Every structure is written in structure tokens, then in C-alpha cells.
């Protein structure tokens, strides 16, 4: 007599095939196997320093999130910005203590929005919204950019100040260069003036010597004139003596003839 065992027996085939859809449905309805999806806006969230900002995300399909494990994590440091589990807020990063709040009014509708108050520039970055329900896990990323208008003003003033300092330094260098050039030119003029003064003094000395020589020549001429006059007077006297001698000679000749 043949014997067939297991699920291949004809008596077991129909009941297992009939129960299979129900088993799959039970598996899908098991709390730990529910599929989770977190949806976040694609646009970056922007704010100024000191403002309050809300980072938004929600479950899809929407469901009550009050009994889920919800965490907001700063990606660059993997630090917990805010943690919530079964209605209780858990420990978080020191930088965010007293500045975050999970908006619980929207949890029942699947909203997982996080409020951050008095944001600072260091709050800029990527935030992960993480949800866990048993074995099910889902997350989404929200980008936050915090601007500091005062820092931009300071930056503009810093640039302006740098330009002004550059202009002042450039002006100082140019003025110093012109001053040195003027001083060098002044020294050159003084040197030339001193040379001209020395040349003038030499000319004055030479003129004085020439004047003295001219005076000596003039004195010499006067002496020569006096000597000439004396010689002329002596010549006249000699002529007069010669004339007298000639006359006396003639007289003596006449007397000799008569004798």
C-alpha cells in the first residue's frame, strides 16, 4: 500500500492554497513589518540669525506618529538635535538644549515638524528626520541655511576698510616718494647754489686781483709819465746848454779871426 506524506498529499493541497492570502495579509498587518516613508520638502529652508524656524517632514501615507521613535539628527556631526519616543523627549546635543520642540499637535496626522528657536550660523546644515516603528525604519533630509545680515555688513565694512587702508598706504608711499624726491632736488639745488657761490667768490677774488694789477699798471704809467717829463726837462736843459756852448764857440771863433 502506497503512502504519501507532507503537503503534497491531495488532502492538504487545497487548504494551504486557500490559507496563503490570509497568511500574507497577516504578515503585512504585523506592526513590525509596516512600511514607513518619510517625505521632506525639496526646497532648502532659509532663515536669518536669531529667527525661529520649523523643519517640516511627514509620514506617507499619513498615520498617527505619537507612539513612534522620532529623531532629528545633524548629519555633519551625527548628533541628536531632538529625540522623541512614546510621548517623551529624550537627551539631545548640548548646543540645542532648550531650543528645540517637536510640534506634537501634528503627530496624530503624521507630521514630524521640528521647531528650532533663535537659530545661529552654526545651525546651518543637513538634518535627517528619522522614524522607527518596530523593525520598520525611514528617514528624509531637510536642508537649513542660516544667514547673518550683520556678518555681511561687517564683511562689506571690512572690505571698505581694507580699500581705505590700501588707499591711505598707497598715498603715504606716494607722498613719501615725492618728499624724498623733493628733498633730493632741494639738496641738488643747494649743492649747485654752493658751487655757484664758490664760483662767484672766485670771480670776485680774481676781479679784486685784476683791479689791484690795474692800479699797479696805472701807478706805473704815472711814474713813467713823471720820468718822461723829467727827461724832457733834462733834454731842454741840455739843448739850452748846447746852444750856449755853440754861441760861445762862435764868439771865440770871431775873436780869433780878428786877431
UniProtKB/TrEMBL annotation:
Name a single GO cellular component. membrane
Keywords carried by this UniProt record: Disulfide bond, Glycoprotein, Immunoglobulin domain, Membrane, Signal, Transmembrane, Transmembrane helix
Domain Ig-like: start-end pairs: 31-147
Q: Which SMART domains match?
A: IG, IGv
Localization, UniProt? Membrane
| Location, primary (coarse class) | membrane
Tell me the PANTHER family matching this sequence.
BG-LIKE ANTIGEN 1-RELATED, BUTYROPHILIN
- Provide the protein name: BG protein
Task: Please name the gene that encodes this protein.
Answer: 15iTBGc-1
